Amino acid sequence: MLLGPLMAQTPASARTQAPAAAQATLTGSITDGAGPVFAADVLLLRDDELQARTSSGADGRYRVTLAPGDYTLRVTRLGYADVSRLISIAPEGTTRADVLLQPAAVLLEGFGVEATASRERVRFESLAGVSVRELGRDDVKGLPGLAEPDPLRAIQVLPGVVTTSDFSSSFHVRGGSSDQNLILLDGAPVFSPYHLGGAFSVFNADMVERAELTAGGFGVRHGGRVSSLLRVESDPGDGDFGVDMGITLLATRLALKGGVGSDLRWRFSGRRSYVDQLLKGVADVPYAFHDLQGVLEWTPTPRDRVRVTAYSGDDGLDFTDFDVDDFPLRVDWGWGNDVAGVNWTRSYSSGQFSVGASSTRFATGLTMPDFDDTDFRSRIDQQRAYVDVDVRANPLLRVSVGSSFERFSYDNLATTAGAIFSEGAGEGTQIGGYAGLALGRAGDWLVDVGLRADLWSPTLGEAATELSPRLAFKTFFGAESRWALQASAGRYTQFLHSLRDEELPVGLDTWVLADAHTPYVVSDQLQLGLSAYPSDEWEVSLEGYLRDFDGVVAFNVRDDPNTEADDVLQGTGRSWGADLMVKKREGAVQGWAALSFLDADRTFPDVLSPRQELPMATYSPIFDRRVDLDLVLSVPGPFGWETGMRMNVGSGTPYTRPIASYAAYQPRTLELGGRYDWNAASDILLGDRNGSRYPLYHRLDMSFRKTFHKSWGSLTPHLDILNVYNQRNVLFYYFEYEDDPVLRTGTSMFPILPTLGLEISF
Amino acid sequence: MRIQRSILAVALLGLLPLLVSGCDIQEVVAESEEDVLVVEAMVHLVRPMDPTGADPVAGSRIQVFLHRTARADGGFAFDEPGAAIDVTFPDGAVHRLTELSNRSCAPGSSTRNNGTCYELENPEGPGSPLMGLEGGEVLDLRIETAEGGVITSSTRIPESFQLQAMVSGQACRVPPETIVAVEWTRAPSAWAYITETQMFGLSQALQAEDVEVNDPLFLLGLSLGADDTSTMFPKEFGLFERVGMEPELIDILQKGMPPATRARVSVSAVDRNYVGWIRGSNFHPSGRVRIPSVEGDGTGFFGASVSHWFEVFVEPLPPELQAGLGACPTG
């Protein structure tokens, strides 16, 4: 077999600390009642100083040599409660210490999590086929940010993730649209988690324990989106009272944490932008946002955990007090999310049971106080209840089953001056169920096979049932099973869409549900990859993928107003590519390089064709950034300053180049009797859709942070500089065909943008 | 504290110009433009048709305006003479349009923008082929340019419709600051109804309020879909002119028209091709993109509209109109 009978190891860092005269041997087994526990972290400490370290092998056994004496033996493993005990190692011979671990966890992709060890490493060893990338709160705060530390902006530095504009924190994963990412806050879906039209996410970094991105091949437990799964986990804190504050040029945030007894932990936060208040009397700033978030975790018994999460946020863009000379139209525009969720998890020695419910809503509305006939609004609601059961039948087999009931409704309207430009409303119910088998031995070979069934029942149209089989395989090889070859294949379905024009750099989603006139997305996906931990310090992964998307939609700009049947255009998509990641996990200098290659296309009816029966046109979507390189480094700086750096280089994204312009005439009945009026404007003719590409994108961001520890707490000032060398990356080109010669000008994305902030904790 | 706040405010304000000034991309010479023929072709029917053809403004016509895309050295000023333009009627009759020497298709054009106009001769005289056109009928267009380029298209005439509670081509009276409820019967194949108004006398009527306004004031309205057969005048007019209008004028027109003013109002049912050309396509940073409906060696549209119009006089009326003018429907 690939695994030896004993897989004890001593990391370099531990080896250097181990006394050279070690002669005694400590050995034992790590089990959990159902069988051996692989990859448990075994630490030997004396006076809280690490003396030696190893991990359990596939048979649960460990072995370590060190100097005789008294030690604290600490065993940790993702998904189990930590165990610590005092042991005495005899001067000669072998001392034996067996440890029984108790599950203490919630489910995450089919296995328990609650530990301080490398979660990614445990996933590598325990899960077949999936590629999960994780960023913790410190990662998020350490990355250079746009004023606010932002988990979604941090996600953009991961392999396979593409963003099309500095102005947006929305993202595309492996050729999927941004509405095809399932974003969960503590298990509750969030539809459009953005402030300021996408510039910032709604996730307050002080509340976030970690953000985990599964770029592809996620398991049967999750349905409803086809491209990626982003799980944002809140941190309820350690139960001790504490305060975290953050002040940036954009907003002020405050988070409080605490607990009641040893069973209840909580953390609440509030955040508000304050530029509008600060500049009152100096300038009118029409924009403000605020959000409130809270998480409460109750563990009435060691086996039970109840978590309640809530979020509410609103953005407002209010021009109603503006003078018409300063802004030509008085509008009041607001949008926001409301999310609430509750989950109860009970852990058993042989598995877990989890039940939960959530409610989520995204809504936006624009009114004009001067016109009571104007109403632009969009809303989507989702209520969800679910149950998941995970049973380890024997050491080689785990069984997962579950089901969910989800209710959706949406309501969109755009009307002004008596004209209804678009409207739509509807409801739908999704009943999902799944069963999965996870076979294999961690660190040896793993197979996940599962089937998900979704019944979608809209108010308009017939119900549809879609089966989504998923299969994943992983085999380990090399010394200490540090290398693995993995493959996964599966079908994914999605019953809702956003009709937002993704070519706009900022904007709000307009969600619609699949119904008689709007298809649902079916995506078949294949992943094949190689991942490795060549040493404890380094991690490497290379993964290729192939995806197709059937049933993607776009807003039909030439729809027949006399029928709802053609309100959306139906199309298909395809993408393939490869993602390479090299990550340095330990040491003074840490970071990673992520290199992504993507080739994506979309095929839709050509709305600019003069024909009545529209021909299909295939083009590269706006997010088809062929090559994208992210280099992220965390480096200790002088005088205790931590330096974060992100360098992003990407090939140009596609755009549609105008090929000519012409005088814009308008027929006039009254004034000109059907003849044409020219209002000195011009319109344009376009070349092939997205047939041109913007030039290479590159940007260097840096951050500098230093924490000053005080008797009462800590102060962390930070300076973030985006686009350090002021590269003019192109947002748009403009072509002036009336000039001689023809000129191309444009607008760039962020210029150099320094921002200051201060974090206070006590 | 006040000083610190001011410093911060100034610092923040300093960032805004940085954001704006840092956003320009250096201009460069681009590839030369393509030379494309643009076709703006319309079948414009006014109902009831004036059998005398006496009203040169409100008359029915078929016209084709040919112009070309801009060239770096000449703006939009390019004629397209010598084209052979045929319109085939439902009965199979082919009518060749006449090239006009003046700029009658686009009276407002200048030396910076013009083209060549072609029209059907005698569109409203006795025996005009337009007299016999029915709603739902299809006309075909074929253009052969002097250089041999060929462009074709078809348009479907929207069905005839009738104004409700008022008579097409006539006038009615309404008290000041009163909304006129304009309704009409359905034209089944229409994709939209374009409403227009020309308001007269506003500048004088609003002189006391110190409101600046064009006279006449031209405003557009829109009803999308064949079923949207009503609008409120003048409240729902000015859809595309609202941006930049004075708030006082907006407020006044939301309630009605001032005393002693008048307006002409038209309602036009338009076809698919017209709507596609007017409403445009997806956002593009370089300008509006229109949806064409002609095929071949050029771009453009061949649309159709059927129009009715009426006049509104706001009380008090001039003496010559005080008798015999019926009340407008109000809402």
Structure, explained:
The complex is a heterodimer of chains A (762) and B (331). Helices cover 4% and strands 58% of the residues of chain A. Chain A has five helices and 51 strands. In chain A, the strands form eleven sheets. Chain A has a 22-stranded antiparallel beta barrel. Chain A has a five-stranded mixed beta sheet with strand order 11-18-19-14-15. In chain A, strands 1, 4, 7 and 8 form a four-stranded mixed beta sheet that branches. Chain A is globular, with a radius of gyration of 28 Å. Chain B is mainly beta and 331 residues long. In chain B, the strands form four sheets. In chain B, strands 2, 3, 7, 9, 13, 15, 16, 18, 20 and 21 form a ten-stranded mixed beta sheet that branches. The longest helix of chain B is centred in the N-terminal third of the chain and has 20 residues, at 2-21. Chain B is globular and about 60 Å long. The relative contact order of chain B is 0.17. The interface between A and B is large, with 87 and 117 residues.
**What kind of oligomer do you see?**
heterodimer
* Tally of DSSP β-strands of chain B: 21
Portion in helices of chain B: 10-25%
User: How large, in whole angstroms, is the Cα Rg of chain B?
Assistant: 24 Å
Major sheet summary line of chain B: 10 strands, mixed
Structural class of chain A: mainly beta
Distance between the termini of chain A: 52 Å
Sequence of secondary-structure elements of chain B: HEEEEEEEEEEEEEEEHEEHEHEEE
Task: Give the helix/strand class of chain B.
Answer: mainly beta
